[in-house]
Amino acid sequence: MFFPSVRPEKMKQYAIPNTELSVSRLAYGSWHLGGLWDQTPPGDDLKQRAVRLLNEAVNCGINHIDLADIYTMGKSDQVVGYALQQDPLLRDKLVLQEKCGIVVASNPQFGPPQRYDFSYEHIVRSVETSLTRLGTDRVELLALHRPDPLVEYEELARAFDDLHASGKVRYFGVSNHTATQIELLKKHVRQPIVLNQLQLSLLHHHLLSEGILANMTSFDYANASGLFDYCRLNEIMIQAWSPTAGGKVFAAGDDPTAQQKRLAEQISTVAKQHGTTDDAVALAWLLKHPAGIQPILGTMNVERISRSTLADNVELTREQWYALLEAARGQSVP
To answer: Which of 60, 217, 295, 323 is placed for a possible disulfide with 243 were both Cys, Cβ 3.0 to 4.6 Å?
Structure first.
């Protein structure tokens, strides 16, 4: 099947509430961009790959790049920084989003155990280290990567204040946080919490399904009851990490389950109906939701970026959306 190559000057965009930022409906994530999770410095091959991937993302209309200080032990930040250096005009075209707060046990700078750290010193040092790696003086967004049970909110608020006052961070958000955790954070910080990055896909649809499965004894909402509606009610942008479940929605990998095969068949059926790619359909399922979900692409394949960004032009019908959900769940809605 022939799929048209699209090079829009500008993908359709979301305005992030309580900010001056407009971002593409799809973001590009840097999780594996730096290669292996070790201390080996990134070579020219990884640097040039980062240039190709970021250029492809920008050429397809993406202006939002998701980063984290821990990704490939900091090397993902480094190769993005290299790519930015190759084009002096590129930095100001992009919205850079950094995440921090996780301490990787295998990092010799910290050592075991694996942990979270929302202390003032760690947050500020993480941001400043990432800025050095990126070769820039600021990031537009900073998200707390995962909740730290030992967080001292007054200390965290001081870190937010100093990073904001210095111009190093413009806006703040969270990742993998519950509604109550966000409320506690909002009680102490001056800045609005503008986004929550959550695991969402056709195979990880629990936060979306909760609303239609309320009061059903078989439903497991992963300790996040009401989170999706809370974010919508409080104008917090919802981002979807792993939006294709690492390719499992396409039955990729060894020994796919019957559920994955069933879903992959339904995705292919809908893709043929729209004359588009399977990647586009899986992402369009998230884009269809009126909450304005922003999927974060994690592919290291240039062609998959272009196949994925076709989702911006796919408008699923209500029937197609529910057919995909039914295939993912293995049963119809009640």
So the answer is: 295
